[in-house]
Amino acid sequence: MHYHPQPLADLIRELQKLPSVGPKTAQRLAFYMLKAPSEDTARLATAISEVKTRLFCCGICGNITDREPCHICANPERDHGVICVIEEPDDLLAIERTNGYKGVYHVLMGVISPLDGIGPKDLRIDSLFDRIESQNIEEVILATNYTTEGQATSLYLTKRLSNLDLAITRISYGIPVGGDLEYIDELTLSKALEGRRRIDV
Amino acid sequence: MHLNQLVLRNFRNYVDCEIDFPSRVNLITGGNAQGKTSLLEAIYFLSTAKSHRAYPNDELIRHDESWFYLKGTIASNADNDGAIHSEMTLEVSNQLQGQRRFKLNGDIQPRLSQWMGQFKVVFFSPESLALVKGAPADRRRFIDLLICQIDSAYLKRLQDYQLVLKQRNELLKQIRGKHASPEQLGAWDGLLVEHGLFIIQTRSQILERLQMYAQEKHAKLTGDREGIELKYQPSPNLRESISLDKDSSLDRSDDESEALTKFESALNSSRRVDVMHGTTSVGPHRDNFSLVLQTQKQGLTLQEEAKPYASQGQQRTIALTLKLSELEVIRHATGKTPIVLLDDVVSELDDERRTFLMDLLGKLNAQTFITSTQREVLEADVDKCTVLTINDGCVLRREDR
Questions:
Q1: What is the pLDDT of residue B250?
Q2: Is B83 part of the contact surface with chain A (CB cutoff 8 Å)?
């Protein structure tokens, strides 16, 4: 075993917990910090701790924010009658990047998965129904992932939403824009064929 | 398809062996434990990346060695216009407890799925008798493996279905323990039905095709004395109630949505029992297909379930019929004729059935590898073949006739 002084060993151990960081990268990062000017490392340390102290989840939609309500829920320009239901806050960022969606969001903070012990009660589903009851919602877009658990969650919501007076939609899936048919996996392609649409002429 | 050459290094009891196979029929003889089956196993490995006997790959490495290597040179000719003769090479190396590397035409294939299935093989071994004697799970595996070879989307569907089933079963246990509410079941039922119906319809379609070939093959193998019928038996509570026809028109047909509703209501009505047992009782994971043997006795036709009533030789013939029908289904779907591997098949067939078999193989025009301890029994039935005598992992003698 190589011997690292205690503070260095601690840093390497903590860095290694980050996603996609292995022992070698962790060591490299630690030595980089050792050599960097102390103002830089202090800024990094403050940034990391402020992420935890200054950020929280929006009480309405669950998005990560530093003010209550978040900038999307507080924005009067957005269509508050359309709610897009997503799994995680980073899905929100992905949809926002399209610049095409003008409604608001609702982050579930996960998906239903009995094998992981996660049921509807562990997700932000009750708060979604509170929102629907208290406001005038016209449409709910289900934008959970096309995984087995994401599909199950979307089906569960569909069943519970079906007796309410609003439109339920599900984002479509199939061939990506610019996709070459030759390189698309068979299941996606067969699903895309199944979900083909008539062209109105 | 035609295997032109096989190279084995440190595979089972082979040290370094290079064998050419110019003939269509190849007889592999030799004493017990000399490496006859291992040769077939190596060919099978080039097709599926695993052993037909489900051994871990590391056990295929020769004693006291740390790796094995296989290489096959295969001519794949399109059946319809025999003119196209393109040759491909498949290579695989396996390190003890370590890396496996797959090459196609000399290029490393990072994804196994792109390497597997290039080379089509149908393997009949003593283990294949499980198709007749074994549990429904054995027959499901046979049909699933067959579909996977011709429909690349099926495997993903099957895996999705298994995951939904696992999630649903876990939920059932939680409901039994009062840790979850039953209203959640609906979502999983919806997914189970969607994937399940696809699996049932695909299986039914393939079984129908298999049945078509099986009747013809079985009649030929028995000299028209016996018939065979494959009966698809979908999971209990689903029998007779749902339409098995797949529909590819734009709007979901009434039949199809009716099938979905029926499947869902079958799930609903068994819900109470399912919660009690913590498992799902309806769905394609409970499918079976039964084999009904038709025999002529004193002018009467007898129909009997093959599993309890058929003799050893009859069971062997049925398993052979299924394997040869598998070959036809693959050939029909891919336009390529798989290679046939017959491990110890002739030992329990009488002279007449053996002659019928060799005759049938000749008509199939498939390259065939047959192992047997007694060479005489086969030579009589074939006029052109290569006879290899294997001794302790080496080709002791080679005769091309």
A1: 55
A2: no
